């Protein structure tokens, strides 16, 4: 159940890049950003819902091998984040096609999300949506060269994604390392995720938004935006894998931090 929540969260956050691609494709970026905000809201809500369930693993951990039990469970959850990200990458062509139609309908509904959802969840529209399903193909990557990938931005996104992925999990594990400061350690997860989100907003989002603007204003081409989006998705995937390495060191850092401020 918890793994499913995390898989959904990371799939949604990965597919958020498809919204910008769709917005640039139909030249309705402002409407696309409205749809993007809805996806982020769903992702954050799912994240909030899974946190109590994740915390329950600490309470249910057997006293004789709590560390091993919790670590194994949390590594499975981190693996779910990787699977969710991979699922988002595979579904990218399909969701670009679907979101392109959704953005146009949102503009026609004058920005009314409730009306868009009401229309979108009718049987007729859901049936029509199946024709936009695109089979994943390497041809979608045509024109994307490894040499053109900005390494610095790629690495930054890997690190930010890793920190965001283990923020809650490392804080919960740290509560086992320093049980006398467990409340302080657990509450530190909000600070960790907050910093990761700030870094994402400062370093990553503006770059993608500028590329989308350039496409709409005919200062850039769509392939550049697609290359950047695929690059960000790939770095997200590597970030979730790197989170497996960062998980335990991150927990020790949170435990140390909890001791310092308590």
Short description:
With 262 residues, the chain is mostly helical. The protein contains 9 helices and no strands.
Note the main attributes of this structure.
262 residues, mainly alpha, 9 helices, globular
Number of helices: 9
Poorly predicted sequence stretches spanning 5 or more consecutive residues: none
Percent in helix: over 70%
Write down the secondary-structure element order: HHHHHHHHH
Average pLDDT, all residues: 84
- The count of DSSP E runs of length 2 or more, i.e. the number of strands, is 0
Give the termini distance in whole angstroms. Answer: 34 Å
Q: Structural class, from helix and strand content?
A: mainly alpha
Shape: globular
Largest sheet: none
Strand content: under 5%
Evaluate the radius of gyration.
Answer: 20 Å
What does this molecule look like?
It is built from nine helices and no strands. The radius of gyration is 20 Å and the shape is globular. The protein is 82% helix and 0% strand. The protein is mostly helical and 262 residues long.
Write the layout of secondary structure elements.
Blueprint lengths: L1 H25 L2 H32 L5 H25 L1 H17 L4 H8 L2 H7 L21 H27 L4 H35 L5 H40 L1
Helix pairs in contact: 1-2, 1-3, 1-4, 1-8, 1-9, 2-7, 3-7, 3-9, 7-8, 7-9, 8-9
